[in-house]
Amino acid sequence: MIRASLACTRRLLLQLVRNRRELLFWFAFPAMMLVLFGSMYAAPAFAKNIPFDAIPPGILVGAALFFACLGGPATAVVAERQNGTFRRLLLTPPGPIAVVFGTLGTYVIVGVIQALIVYGLALFFHGNMRFDYRLAVLVLVLSIACYVAAGIACAAAFSRREGEILAPIAAFGVPLLCLSGTFFPVSIMPPFMQRFAEATPIYHMIRAMTEVTAHRASFSPIAGDVLYLALFALGATILAALSYRSIAAAERV
Amino acid sequence: MIALDVRHLKRAFGAKQVLNDVSFAVESGTLYGLIGRNGAGKTTTIESIVGLARPDAGTIGIFGKAPRANRRSIGHAPQEIAVYPDLTARENIAFFADLYGNRDPRARADAVLAHIGLTPHAHVLASVLSGGQRRLLNLGLALAHQPPLLILDEPTVGLDIEARDDVWRVMREARANGTTILFTTHYLEEADRLCDRVGILAAGTIVAEGSPSELKAALGYDTVVSVRCDDTAAAQELLARYAQATRSSDGLVHAGVRGAPAIDVIVEWLGNLRATSVSTRSVSLEDVYLNVSSR
Fold first, then answer.
1. Chain B residues whose beta carbon lies within 8 Å of the beta carbon of residue A98
2. Alpha carbon distance B227, B255 (integer Å)
3. In this predicted structure, what is the pLDDT of residue A163?
4. Which pLDDT tens digit goes with each residue over A71-92?
């Protein structure tokens, strides 16, 4: 199983490297967003309320990981179905679970590189890099697990063709990003929206990452967020495995 | 030893009974061809065997075990080419060899590439390969884990003669190495040339089975005379006096006869029927197929 998952990870990374435009987008997009929001929040109207350190978590979790780690796996699964290799994989001994873990492995690597880019740029823009890296990695990996699992579940639920997957992700995902504090702090939203935001995983990803990286928090203040994300990741992974099995059942005529 | 044993396979899609009691067995180390027209149920049979379709009834044994328990024994090349377009030929094969637990996937990929004749294209992306090369790669992925049973669905469909010959060579070499092969085709000449045994699938069941020579011998004639003339009904009536079987198509009357007719008989036909051409040929699997599928 581990070997098969690693084989899937290697294969997906190789495909990503070959698809340079997609790769460039995934790495350039968060950098652009960081520069954009960094410049915006540097304006006097914002600057007194929001320190620069509060910006990278939202950009990383909302703009970078969301599109790469949710959209990427979803597109990969749909492409696999479209080019017929999904059915081929069904006949191999490791089966679908190895593919789920292989996909997770790939996007953990992609997510870590995105985090390095975002926080590297943040450092360049006078951000603070003195925080507990282990906690940051924990939140990052949990966030990626949530996204990857949700992406696979989305692929099963919404589409058979590559072009079809982007519309539902944009339709559900972008409003969720706005609500969760990716672009604007949740604190400026009306109370009912804040309550809704608190129920979403993206809110907890951003909050935990902000606490760890901007407020140099220890584990205690983010324990609730970590627990929420761990449970969500577990639930979403189970859902992803079930979804993957449902795709497999649909492919078995 | 029986490599593949299919018994009483049934499958319906809605009201349409696609497989209706399909039974056949494939001896180890032989090449078995499943032939039939489009929609005869060949792909459903193949997919039931490999586990991609669920039969409503029937049993399948692969080297005496259920297919699920014997996945590693099967190499399957689907009719639709299923490869990763953004990986090279070598990377595609190595990936599947890796999934099957091969200790040195790259070395295995090189061996498969040599076998299928794609070594010069090992580092070419699958998306850039020609149609024939992609189909060979599709076959190569099925060989990645050295399966003792190879199941190929229409492996030569849409290929030019050279690419088809390459696929035939790979199949023959695999058989020579002891691999059992089941493949589907609607090219009867292909089945005639390659197969040790053939099963003809029509109306969801095997209507004839045997070696190509056995099936041809069972027709009761060894030569087919084809006469082209204006009055095909008269020609059919005349030839029926000499022939074991007659049929007409596209202005031609075909008659199955024992032994090539003497030249004076042919001259008589030409005269009586005002025929524009008379030709003779040895009986083929096409005659067998037309005979059994028209019953």
1. 99
2. 8
3. 67
4. 888 888 888 888 889 889 888 8
A253 interaction partners in chain B (CB closer than 8 Å): 44, 47, 52-54
Strand partners, B172: none
**pLDDT score at A44:** 67
By CB atoms closer than 10 A (0-12, 13-18, 19+), residue A162 is middle
Taking the CA of residue A175 and the nearest CA in chain B, the distance in Å comes to 33
Q: How far B52 CA sits from the closest chain A CA (Å)?
A: 5
Q: Distance between CA atoms of B86 and B171, rounded to whole angstroms?
A: 27
Q: Which residue of B has its CA nearest to A10?
A: B95
Spatial contact of A205 and A61, defined as CB atoms under 8 Å apart: yes
Q: Within an 8 Å CB–CB cutoff, is residue A17 touching chain B? A: no
Q: Which residue of A has its CA nearest to B145?
A: A92
Q: Do B85 and A83 touch (CB under 8 A)?
A: yes
Residue A160 has what pLDDT? 67
Model confidence pLDDT, tens digit, residues B61-105: 999 888 877 888 999 999 999 999 999 999 999 999 999 989 999
In CATH terms, is domain B219-293 a member of 3.30.310? no
Residues B14 and B203: their CA atoms lie apart, in Å, by: 16
Q: Which two tokens stand for residue A85?
A: 């290799």
Distances (CA, A) of B127 to A18, A88, B86, B108, B249: 12, 18, 6, 22, 42
Is pLDDT at A129 greater than 80 in this prediction?
no
What are B's interface residues with A at a Cβ cutoff of 8 A?
44, 47, 50-54, 71-72, 74, 76, 78, 80-87, 91, 95-96, 98-101, 105, 125, 141
> How far is CA A235 from each of CA A69, A71, A141, B202, B238, rounded to the nearest angstrom?
17, 19, 15, 49, 79
pLDDT score of A46 more than 70: no
- Tell me, what's the ipTM? 0.83
Q: By CA distance, what is B105's nearest residue in A?
A: A7
Q: What is the pLDDT of residues B111-148, one digit of tens each?
A: 999 999 999 999 999 999 998 899 999 999 999 999 99
Is A252 touching B (CB cutoff 8 A)? yes
Check CB contact of A88 with chain B, cutoff 8 Å. yes
Class of domain B2-216: alpha beta
Residues 51-80 of A with CB under 8 A from B: none
Map out the domains of chain B as residue ranges: 2-216, 219-293
Total domains in the fold of chain A: 1
Q: What is the pLDDT of residues B216-240, one digit of tens each?
A: 888 888 888 888 888 778 777 877 7
High-pLDDT (> 70) share of chain B, %: 98
Residue A153 structural domain = 2-251
Nearest to A18 among B53, B86, B141 (CB): B86
B50, A89: Cβ pair inside 8 Å?
A: no
- Strand ranges across the sheet with B16-27: B16-27, B2-13, B57-62
